[in-house]
């Protein structure tokens, strides 16, 4: 299995924060046109700061970068740059997180954010043939009242958003704090997902399942601490969106040879590989496939299972999934 095989293998990306694809070069460009000065002398200087001991150290820098985005064009340019990278690494479908509160708290209109992202999604279908969906995440370090206000702002844009999610600082901000807003979101027709078990305990994964009624768990690493939970996730066929290079960079799993991915697969869980915040963690989705294949010495069969899982775990229709699974099969026939 060559690196090129892993890069070109058709795959879906299901755990990707669009603000986490903000490369320093683009950040400096957009900051300049918005008259914002960054507290770094250069692109290199900014990259030097990407040394994180934990999730919070990363989030502090990530929110600072995101605060340079102001105009619909900025949000478009950010997403468009991602689609270029995604296309180069075999992505045929992407389900993309965005964090509206990071922007609306700076008085950026919700419409500027969603319309910029949505236009890039339309163009990615036309230019690259990549299908995509948007997932609106609530920031769990903010109160539920703020999430409720954000949900209200999203209702007029219901057709452009497939699901709601929960991200940001996990420990101390359990899923049960967001039961009401998730119930309202489900009533309004949104699917739900949540980050759980990245730094937080297995208990948070239980809450995401039972209280927030999620269709997928984002990360889910700490699920493996609880045998009953593993059995439950397997029985309910709830996919996990796993992010190896993120886990390494944020010290969730500093040594990738000890990564729990194989254990997840062996436990019958529907694991998928994703990039989380690729501009900050040293690689896009194909790079994640390469790194984890090498670290765990994954077989071609295991890698293909991961790619097929990504399609099966998506929010596409059965017919759309069939179409992408066929693409994977055709790729294997041509390249094995
Ligand atoms: N926001 C962006 N990346 C995140 C992550 N890995 N965990 C929680 N919130 C995030
Ligand atoms: Zn994430």
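-> sequence recovered:
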């Amino acid at each position: 299995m060559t690196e090129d095989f892993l890069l070109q293998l058709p795959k879906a990306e299901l755990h990707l924060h669009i603000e986490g694809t903000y490369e320093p070069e683009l950040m400096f460009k957009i900051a300049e046109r918005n008259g914002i000065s960054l507290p770094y002398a250069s692109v290199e200087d900014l990259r030097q700061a990407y040394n994180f001991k934990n999730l919070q150290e990363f989030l502090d820098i990530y929110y600072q970068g995101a605060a340079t985005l102001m105009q619909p064009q900025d949000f478009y340019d950010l997403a468009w740059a991602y689609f270029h990278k995604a296309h180069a690494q075999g992505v045929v479908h992407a389900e993309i997180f965005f964090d509206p509160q990071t922007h609306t708290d700076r008085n950026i209109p919700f419409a500027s954010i969603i319309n910029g992202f949505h236009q890039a999604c339309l163009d990615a279908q036309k230019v690259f043939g990549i299908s995509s969906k948007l997932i609106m995440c609530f920031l769990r370090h903010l109160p539920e009242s703020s999430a409720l206000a954000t949900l209200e702002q999203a209702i007029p844009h219901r057709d452009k958003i497939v699901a709601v999610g929960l991200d940001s600082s996990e420990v101390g901000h359990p899923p049960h704090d967001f039961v009401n807003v998730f119930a309202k979101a489900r009533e309004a027709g949104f699917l739900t997902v949540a980050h759980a078990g990245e730094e937080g305990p297995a208990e948070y994964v239980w809450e995401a399942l039972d209280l927030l009624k999620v269709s997928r768990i984002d990360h889910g690493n700490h699920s493996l601490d609880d045998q009953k939970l593993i059995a439950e996730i397997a029985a309910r066929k709830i996919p996990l969106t796993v992010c190896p290079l993120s886990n390494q960079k944020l010290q969730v799993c500093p040594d990738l040879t000890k990564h729990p991915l194989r254990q997840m697969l062996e436990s019958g869980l529907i694991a998928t590989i994703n990039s989380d915040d690729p501009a900050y963690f040293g690689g896009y989705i194909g790079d994640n496939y390469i790194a984890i294949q090498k670290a765990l010495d994954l077989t071609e069969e295991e890698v293909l299972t991961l790619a097929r899982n990504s399609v099966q775990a998506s929010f596409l229709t059965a017919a759309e999934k069939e179409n992408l699974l066929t693409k994977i099969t055709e790729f294997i026939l041509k390249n094995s």
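The pocket of adenine (ligand 1) is lined by residues 17, 20, 55, 62, 167-168, 195, 198, 246, 276-277 (CB under 6 Å).
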